[in-house]
């Protein structure tokens, strides 16, 4: 059995908690990364779901999503697939895509629009309000957002992920307003 490659575009970038032989920086084409997937476990709870990223097919075939690809040895494929199926539950499905700059296919898990945890195409401010108050067993939703933004600046400097960085800015602005409000309350 040959090896398998897995493409990480969210928390798999900074938390690859499975054995791999090699990792590569690169991108896939024809997709966009969006915080449109609800998280009722890792970054939220059922009554206050957080938001995590998913991939959506783009109308522009040249759109790119940057991330990391992990090479899984043939003897670890079954265990890694089972682990990722459990970790990435909640509406994600597997697809095979072409990875660049190396022209070979990778396995991805993506939350499709017809899954029950797809939050819909909300605007950045609405998503930011969900993120700032959500927390799950893996930590705060804010932490997830900030780690992803930081990781993308590290692995793909100069690449602008407009949705990701606009969301990061919106959450920071909400945090700043919250902090200023708390300071005012202390003097009231």
UniProtKB/TrEMBL annotation:
Q: Does the keyword Lyase apply?
A: yes
Give the top-level enzyme category.
lyase
Please identify the protein, giving its name as recorded. Answer: glutathione-specific gamma-glutamylcyclotransferase
| Natural source organism | Cyphomyrmex costatus
Task: Look up the record and report any one GO term of the cellular component aspect.
Answer: cytoplasm
Q: Which domain of life is it from?
A: Eukaryota
Could you tell me the keywords of this UniProt record? Lyase
Q: What is its EC number?
A: 4.3.2.7
Annotated coiled-coil segments of the chain: none
UniProt-listed PANTHER family = CATION TRANSPORT PROTEIN CHAC-RELATED, GLUTATHIONE-SPECIFIC GAMMA-GLUTAMYLCYCLOTRANSFERASE 2
Q: Would I find Lyase among this entry's keywords?
A: yes
Which Pfam families does the UniProt record give? Answer: ChaC
Name the job this protein performs: Catalyzes the cleavage of glutathione into 5-oxo-L-proline and a Cys-Gly dipeptide. Acts specifically on glutathione, but not on other gamma-glutamyl peptides.
Q: Which reaction does it catalyse?
A: glutathione = L-cysteinylglycine + 5-oxo-L-proline
Gene Ontology MF term list: glutathione specific gamma-glutamylcyclotransferase activity
Q: Which GO terms describe its biological process?
A: glutathione catabolic process
Family membership noted in the UniProt record: Belongs to the gamma-glutamylcyclotransferase family. ChaC subfamily.
